[in-house]
Write a structure and sequence with these properties.
By secondary structure, this protein is of the alpha/beta class. It has 20 helices and 25 strands. Bound molecules: 2-deoxy-2-amino glucitol-6-phosphate.
Amino acid sequence: MCGIIGVLGKSEASPTIVETLRRLEYRGYDSAGIATLHNGEMHRRRAVGKLSELENVLAANPVEGLIGIGHTRWATHGAANETNAHPHKAGPVAVVHNGIIENFARLRDELVANGIVFETETDTEVVAQLCAYLMADGMSPVDAAGATIARLEGAFALAFMFEGEDDLLIAARRGSPLAIGHGDGEMFIGSDAMALGPMTNRITYLEEGDWAVLTRQNVTIYDALGNRANRELQLVNVDAVRVDKGNYRHFMAKEIHEQPSVMAVALSHYLTQDRENVQPPVSLDFSSYDRLVIVACGTAYLAANVAKYWFEQIARLPVEIDIASEFRYREPPLNGREGMIVISQSGETADTLAALKYATGKAARTLAIVNTPASSMEREADDTLQILAGPEIAVASTKAFTCQLSVLASLAILAARQRGVIDNTQEIALVQTLMSAPRLVSDAIAAENAIEAASRDLAKATDILFLGRGSLFPLALEGALKLKELSYIHAEGYPSGELKHGPIALIDDQVPVIVFAPSGDLFDKTVSNMEEVMARGGKILLVTDEKGAAEVSKGVWKTIIMPECDPLVAPMVYAIPAQLIAYHTAVEKGTDVDQPRNLAKSVTVE
Ligand code: AGP
């Protein structure tokens, strides 16, 4: 996901832009750039790679000026190179952009037919060229920008700057969030409030379709219909001190270790004071639904997979789950008797937002479970629940996953009560079990040294399988996803019982098989699956509890011991080895743990 910054300042803009771009690094990027105005002239510097590359360029060739725009680019259209890096410039116009201009080809053809020569492969250049073309045709910068924005189709956040206009920036939001920061005689634009934290906590969030004209003294906002709009100026509690790693080597390590505390915070917001009953911060009613439809991407989708077991087993409520990028294109029939839930850490994932929009007006009600305030999904959904995990900086989702599970488990218990499936005594018992999750997750983290030791061997593998049964099958998928996205080792997750239907052909002594199997009802069946693997020379890394280890210690390659736990909270507990195996294997392999290659923290393009 790209990052946008705009500064209308009283001091040199360049250092402020670079500092705020650094606060947007967590979004993932492959190039960065800056443009400033000085004495009416525009100066632009861009670099491929990390922000430090841009800083090297600026050290060798600094830019001056009190006004500027900056950008971190995650490539969508066009390779990750300097030519395609933002800001893009055409005539007197410079633009930075997050998102996708879906009609860029048509606009480009129109401009080329009028003699315009393009320099880049990007969709963004069309915005600068169209605005410059309209200015050359006599429009003022503001009118040309407004007319340009009106021609665009797609999801985007934009910031414009104009040569000769050293007290003007223009911002636009459609499908990608954009915040305006109000300083003292200064004005700022940022992709999120956290980026603007060091300069101001006085924030106005643009609404869907808004565009804004900024000077140092004021902001004029227009809505999608071109009417003047008033948007609330909020005091956003963004910690002005950088979100930092503390004494951890990576943000991911910090966020893994934060899970016991943030899960406890999340649960406390979803339970009554006496910790006996579920009471979400928003009034919800599951009693009238025939079914739930839960849609998400990536790790959030795997949280949905776990939730299916809980809603169906505890509340007897049928659940259909789907990957967001598939959902709306299969045109699922929604008859107004289902509840639609989307799960998204960022609240901005384009595929999930599109699924939510598809269901709006069709499903009985829509609920967004997110971890980010003022997100696009919050604006779109009938109801929104925050998972209260705090800012998750590492691209790999960890604490958001276990907080999503904490909230989903509490909702499953609520649904069971509302549907008359459980009585108050049973609810109290389930809530007490759920309340044990943070402590058990803390106990699971205590296995980190054993996991780190095992990961040194796992790092030598080129293919790894993960197995799990029941509500731990999604954890096998999550373990594989985490390992792939962090260590770049190919991994797949399977239901333990599925191995013999084909994947067992993959097994030899070069393919470690990681099995998530707490002792209990399904354990014996999983043991027989493990024996099928070991009989073919496969190496089993068994993640289980003391009881399980005692039953099957022989022949297993390695064993990681988890705390014994109730099946209800096993998915939260076994999320820890899934995360730590991926983390330590990645550290062993030397990959970029917090910002793995090719990945973005939130994918705001389809
Ligand atoms: C998770 O580790 C990945 N980074 C990715 O799969 C992520 O879960 C997915 O992109 C969904 O993001 P969201 O929760 O912000 O919608």
